[in-house]
Amino acid sequence: MSVKKKQIVECEVTDVAFGGKGLAKIDGFAVFIDQTVTGDRVAARIVRKKRNYAEAVVQELLRPSPLRVTAPCPYSGYCGGCKWQFIDYAEQIALKRQHVVDCLAHIALIDDATVHETIPSERIFGYRNKMEFSCSDRRWLMPHELGTETDMGFALGLHVPGTFHKVLDTRACLLQPEPGNQILDMVREFMRASRRPVYGLRSHEGFWRFLMLRHSVAKDQWMVNVVTSEEDRDAVAPLVEMIGHRFPQVTSVINNITARKSGVAIGEREILLAGEPVLRDGIGPYAFDVSANSFFQTNTRGAKTLYDTVAQYADLDGNESVVDLYCGTGTIAIWLASHAREIIGLELVESAVADARKNCIANGIDNCRFILGDIKETLASIPAVPDMLVIDPPRIGMHKDVVTQVLGMAPPSIVYVSCNPATLARDMISLKEIYALKEVQPVDMFPHTFHVESVARLVKR
Ligand SMILES: C[S@@+](CC[C@H](N)C(=O)[O-])C[C@H]1O[C@@H](n2cnc3c(N)ncnc32)[C@H](O)[C@@H]1O
């Protein structure tokens, strides 16, 4: 039987595929069904048909899986922020491990590496230290809002999956700690009442673009970063005053300005409106200053688990030289510094390198240095082959030129930290020519999403 677009099919979900969708087979033909889990029996409507698979949405849940739980968030099922709230947490972390195993087996053809059980997140709600809320002049209505008088021309919140311009007016997000949601609410009312309009993600006109909130777990302090399309100090000044009155825990108010059309909350220019230019956080014994646009692991408690695993896999004795590729604000370099002779960190973002240098001084560390630039160019400037490489690339993994350079350099061991098992597996296709993948430790940094962080230990054959 072949399925057709718009057809309603009755089927049993037998697995959850990488990417988070339930998988059902209809006469051997794969159908991916959003918001389902193993054991669900559903009537699903086919929305896309390709040669080898189809995609469907649930029309009716005929028999719920025992792996389902009641999602506490009212936006669950509509919001792109977390799509797995309806799955029992123990199952979420089991699925994450399986996805690492599957990616390595199917993409890299590696089936002999030890993949440990996923280390769970200490907190499964309120764990995110950074949230980015988008502004839009197209509000996505929740079912109970349809046909009401709701103002559809303003939204501040998270995106509906698969859309770039439709945004939920998120009243509260359970992934951020309080008073994040109170700050969100206050900023929403301020923007809505402002004389400047909200940005249209299609028209590319308007002023208010994003609200980014950062929380310091160590100090329980906050950074508020409003992203606007141009500079208008009179428009933002009253907001700064309101924040100062209501939220003494906000220690930094920043205005990033961007005229770029891309939906990225990073400004070409940054104005410090009040307080400190950075947020001070800490992981374990170390203090870290984080600028608005620098990368910092979004689950601070999970970051400690991650870095402890990196240190365990690095197994340094104090005499080694280490190169830390994609070093961000220098967190891993600092974590390993007391166990190594010297560490060189390579990073693209200028503010992150500046933060890394300051973070070393603040933590009394003098055996780390950092090189600013694209690793494709800067890796060649490393004076000697290090004893070990730490590689922690963004989701897209390593650039192929960087993989080639790493293979040319061929240090004795590598600790590869990955936030995407598919690109870890893709990079392993080349790296396995000279490295054996000894073990992988998945670490859950992102409960209720299908994302998983993992640390891989590679040893030169
Ligand atoms: C996943 S983060 C890792 C940061 C750090 N290891 C940590 O744990 O906080 C990836 C980092 O790679 C940087 N990056 C992305 N592309 C890069 C490139 N081509 N060259 C150098 N750094 C890059 C990003 O700015 C980001 O800081």
From TrEMBL:
<feature type="active site">
    <location>
        <position position="419"/>
    </location>
</feature>
<keyword id="KW-0808">Transferase</keyword>
<dbReference type="InterPro" id="IPR010280">
    <property type="entry name" value="U5_MeTrfase_fam"/>
</dbReference>
<protein>
    <submittedName>
        <fullName>Putative RNA methyltransferase</fullName>
    </submittedName>
</protein>
<feature type="binding site">
    <location>
        <position position="392"/>
    </location>
    <ligand>
        <name>S-adenosyl-L-methionine</name>
    </ligand>
</feature>
<feature type="binding site">
    <location>
        <position position="347"/>
    </location>
    <ligand>
        <name>S-adenosyl-L-methionine</name>
    </ligand>
</feature>
<dbReference type="InterPro" id="IPR012340">
    <property type="entry name" value="NA-bd_OB-fold"/>
</dbReference>
<keyword id="KW-0949">S-adenosyl-L-methionine</keyword>
<dbReference type="Pfam" id="PF05958">
    <property type="entry name" value="tRNA_U5-meth_tr"/>
</dbReference>
<dbReference type="GO" id="GO:0070041">
    <property type="term" value="F:rRNA (uridine-C5-)-methyltransferase activity"/>
</dbReference>
<feature type="active site" description="Nucleophile">
    <location>
        <position position="419"/>
    </location>
</feature>
<comment type="similarity">
    <text>Belongs to the class I-like SAM-binding methyltransferase superfamily. RNA M5U methyltransferase family.</text>
</comment>
<feature type="binding site">
    <location>
        <position position="326"/>
    </location>
    <ligand>
        <name>S-adenosyl-L-methionine</name>
    </ligand>
</feature>
<dbReference type="InterPro" id="IPR002792">
    <property type="entry name" value="TRAM_dom"/>
</dbReference>
<dbReference type="InterPro" id="IPR030391">
    <property type="entry name" value="MeTrfase_TrmA_CS"/>
</dbReference>
<dbReference type="Pfam" id="PF01938">
    <property type="entry name" value="TRAM"/>
</dbReference>
<dbReference type="InterPro" id="IPR030390">
    <property type="entry name" value="MeTrfase_TrmA_AS"/>
</dbReference>
<feature type="domain" description="TRAM">
    <location>
        <begin position="2"/>
        <end position="60"/>
    </location>
</feature>
<dbReference type="InterPro" id="IPR029063">
    <property type="entry name" value="SAM-dependent_MTases_sf"/>
</dbReference>
<feature type="binding site">
    <location>
        <position position="297"/>
    </location>
    <ligand>
        <name>S-adenosyl-L-methionine</name>
    </ligand>
</feature>
<keyword id="KW-0489">Methyltransferase</keyword>
